Request: fold
Amino acid sequence: MVTDLYPSRTDMETKIIARKDPVVYTSGQSKKGPLTKQELNSYEKNGYLLYKDFFSEEEVNILKKELHTVMEINRNNHSDLVIREPESDEVRSVFEIHKDSNFFKRLCSDERLVKIAQQLLGSQVYITQSRINFKPGFKGKEFYWHSDFETWHVEDGMPNMRAVSCSIVLTDNYEFNGPLMLIPGSHKWYVSCSGSTPDNNFKHSLKKQELGVPDHESLKFLVNKAGGKIDRATGPAGSVLFFECNTMHGSSGNISPFPRSNVFFVYNSIENKLLKPFNKNNPRPEFLANRANITAIEPSTDNLLNYSTKKTPNLT
Reply:
């Protein structure tokens, strides 16, 4: 029986628990990789790394083309993989893109991304979730403050904090179009949330998360620990943000004319595969938490420019 190191949603009280897992894993792949000691120390301290202009101008042009293709294909797609804004029919997220698009399947295995994830997690990795988040101009809704790990632990059975999200900026992220906000150092503390989780909670939470979100006092605690600092992940299209699975983050609504879109790949350690959900409910669907046929990613050195969509991919 696996010990639940991070209980949450077990009663009506909120608790703050000190992190019990490493941030940077020191065995295996973490002894070598593209990140410098300074970068590893920064990730250890803050819980994220932001690289502006990570991809070349040519690659960014293809990224934008692929984003447009996915948007057009899914505009009238009402399958479970497509999440829409709670108060409109605008596409909010498209999930499992690493399986249904040749381009994004190639992108998630890009050596430049995978080797960073391997170095941080100290092992080979696999994709446990992928998605594109769209935040249209004028009406893109907020994503409230949350730790991804809290949901992945409670509802998906991720045992330990040994995963990292890779967010690739597909449109310019400004301070005024709802960029991702992060609380530096918040990954060192786990907010055990109040309440309980009904079955199929994901059908509501993907539109508006109300369970597994921190209370105001916990947020104040985390921000105070950060010296009153909240960072914004802004940068041009082609920038890349790596953030630790327990980093507290969120984003405000977008009332500017400029859309904000990002692709997310969640790299999980091959040694941290999902177990039974810790809330004892049924597991969430595969498109939210990959369990079937898990194999480690083989980093690819193929030229990304060769993988632009030649025909309409099957995203429906």
